[in-house]
């Protein structure tokens, strides 16, 4: 079954999603997208099902053809301050805020959200594999975040962020053990498995 266009028809509906929630370093990035009724692209799917190359092909197409889109970054300091769930919701709110057209309804990937400006919303588990606007938001969030991780990889190449994007791979954890942490690491996360509390 292909992706559905809308959860509610005949209203301006924005889909929103985030990337980077499970990472040890870097920001959580969210996107919000309102698509036109006739939006079509054969590749569009949940960004996790796509290759990096496919996501990079989709991003300019989504940006050019969306009625509106917004992208926001919440950095590791804010994540440590308010926790990753609240930071993810804040990122989605900030992305919606950036839309040039105000949505009348919001569909959210996942099962946690806080009301935004009293606009009705619906949380949808695995929404990025069900609805076009959430899938489009997932592509934008992921490509913008990957781009950011590529940039900071130049500053700290020993963590292989270009490859692992900040996720807790074996290589990333070993680099933390060997070199310690960077300003981009989330201090409230368990950065290495044996860690009970972080020596700061």
TrEMBL record:
Any Pfam family hit: RNase_HII
Any single GO CC term annotated in Swiss-Prot or TrEMBL for this entry: cytoplasm
Predominant location: cytoplasm
Coiled coil: none
PROSITE patterns given in the database record: RNASE_H_2 (PS51975)
Subcellular localization, as worded in the UniProt entry: Cytoplasm
Cofactor(s) needed: Mg(2+); Mn(2+)
GO BP: any one term: mismatch repair
SUPFAM superfamilies membership: Ribonuclease H-like (SSF53098)
Origin: domain of life: Bacteria
Keywords recorded for this protein, A-Z: Cytoplasm, Endonuclease, Hydrolase, Manganese, Metal-binding, Nuclease
Keyword Hydrolase: yes
Catalysed reaction, written as an equation: Endonucleolytic cleavage to 5'-phosphomonoester
GO MF, one annotated term: RNA-DNA hybrid ribonuclease activity
Binding site for a divalent metal cation: 17-18, 109
Enzyme class name: hydrolase
EC number: 3.1.26.4
Entry's cofactor comment: Manganese or magnesium. Binds 1 divalent metal ion per monomer in the absence of substrate. May bind a second metal ion after substrate binding.
UniProt xrefs under InterPro entries: RNase_HII, RNase_HII/HIII, RNase_HII/HIII_dom, RNaseH-like_sf, RNaseH_sf
PANTHER family (alphabetical): RIBONUCLEASE H2 SUBUNIT A (PTHR10954), RIBONUCLEASE HII (PTHR10954:SF18)
Function: Endonuclease that specifically degrades the RNA of RNA-DNA hybrids.
Annotated protein name in UniProt: Ribonuclease HII
Species assigned in the record: Gramella jeungdoensis
Lineage start: Bacteria, Pseudomonadati, Bacteroidota, Flavobacteriia, Flavobacteriales
Annotated gene: rnhB
């Amino acid at each position: 079954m292909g992706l559905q266009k809308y959860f509610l028809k005949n209203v301006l509906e924005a889909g929103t999603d985030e990337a980077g929630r499970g990472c040890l370093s870097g920001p959580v990035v969210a996107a919000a997208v309102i698509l036109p009724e006739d939006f079509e692209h054969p590749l569009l799917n949940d960004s996790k099902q796509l290759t990096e190359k496919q996501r990079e092909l989709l991003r300019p197409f989504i940006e050019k053809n969306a009625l509106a889109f917004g992208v926001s970054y919440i950095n590791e300091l804010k994540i440590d301050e308010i926790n990753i769930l609240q930071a993810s919701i804040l990122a989605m709110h900030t992305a919606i805020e950036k839309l040039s057209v105000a949505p009348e309804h919001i569909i959210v990937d996942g099962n946690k959200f806080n009301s935004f400006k009293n606009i009705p919303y619906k949380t949808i588990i695995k929404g990025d594999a069900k609805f076009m606007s959430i899938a489009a938001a997932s592509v934008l969030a992921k490509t913008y975040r990957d781009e950011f991780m590529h940039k900071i990889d130049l500053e700290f190449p020993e963590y292989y962020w270009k490859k692992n994007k900040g996720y807790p791979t074996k290589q990333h954890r070993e680099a933390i053990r060997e070199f310690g942490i960077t300003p981009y690491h989330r201090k409230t996360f368990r950065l290495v498995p044996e860690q009970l509390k972080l020596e700061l």
